[in-house]
Amino acid sequence: MSIYANKDLLTIPEGKFFDRKSARYDMNKLANILIAFANADGGTVALGISNKKYEGINILSDKKKNDILQIGNQRVVPMLDINVERKKIINIQKQVDEVWLLTVSPSDEKLYANKKDEVYLRIGDETHKVTFVERKDLEFDKGIRAFEKQTVDEAIISDLDEEIVSKYKKLYGFSGENLWDLLFPKGLAKRYVNHDEKASYKLTVAGVLILSKYPTAFIPSARIRFIRYEGRAAQTGTDMNIVKQEMIEGPLVKMLERIADILEAQLRSFSSLDSQTGKFLSVPEYPKGAWLEGIVNAVTHRNYNYTGDDIRVLMFDDRLEIHSPGGLPAVVTKENIRETHYSRNPYIARALTDFGWVREFGEGVDRIYTDMNKFFLDDPIYKVDNNSVNLILRNNIIMRSFRKNNALEARIGKDWGKLNFIEKTAISIVYEKGTIKTSELMEAVDGYSINSARNALKHLKKIGIFERIATAPTSPKQYYKLVK
Predict the structure, then answer these.
(1) Whole-prediction pTM value?
(2) In the chain, what are the domains?
(3) What residues contact residue 443 under an 8 Å CB cut-off, 6+ apart?
(4) Which pLDDT value is given to residue 271?
């Protein structure tokens, strides 16, 4: 049964998993939507709804209805399996009628196209026609994507977490005795049929990660490590500065609950500048919507095939780093990450969406940017390579010290919005170390020249924030500190 079967189809938001269309909707366009769902995370089209009113399916002729039932093999290449669920409704004519729920599963090794060889992808609530370059990226990513659907032969039903399984049953209103009937259609189990047509089942990687009591027994890297450091850098040996460290394991939902509790307990309140009023406000170190979204994204979209790496949440005095194994999924880049969605693990993404952890389009990565801006914090930073995605959230550690000096607060408060990144960094370093040299600033802001560092310090001196200490105009030992 589809999760939408027991919901009000007129009020469900259209998004990456759901769309509503009239029974008279163009057949080729309908095929393109189903193709887009299949190439993305799977999804459902509710057919028989017009302008958020039930028109029903009975306005169609029998031939037209049959054409809809055959759309997967007549208008899609290769043939697309479409599950059709009939939901009884009362149409706008006050007659008993039906809405058809056309549901497709996400593809792994296949890339679906229409008869014109056009490929579509569901991005948010839109059906996006894929470019040639995007198509190549999607084809490359299919092998990685197939991992979550592989079976875990050693895992058995008794390995599942009873509490999570019970919640999952309630999500779908499932009351049957054979649990495989729920897990198989959702990609959490795989079915094998022998020569006598008797079915046997095995849990998939997605099924183990979502429902198993101890996923790391089968997928060793399926964990989250939390490390809290004292200071701005990780130290080793006798200088090791780890304050708190915890390894988190279990089904994904429980891991998310645990890391959220741990991190929330570690967060502080900072004084942050309101750029509109010039006054300082007390705010949490990071907005919860931003850091939680970052962790959920890591859990949802990481490459679980990377067995030698795990998700890491690293907390420093000045920033929070969330490390996710594996590069960005196909068609997603640093430039389009705010508006483009593509799941490397669509079955995991769907399950976490149903559990309420993954948000619909428009609230994901874009929410991280929005929430950070609302808290007067810098934009998130994404550092990406082929092996990992690293999200960096910076706090306002500078602002804590402003409360100690009213004169300095008023002066910097007036000029803060006019300062550039390198100047703000210089103030941050001085608050921690007391002084700063030009060479130290250049090292702290990767990619900037010595002249940029020198000009930043000169400007801070000019506006009365820094004073220069030197025995001679060109002294190599000169440094800057805050004015008294």
Answers:
(1) 0.68
(2) 18-130 (3.30.950.30), 224-397 (3.30.565.60), 419-482 (1.10.10.10)
(3) none
(4) 57
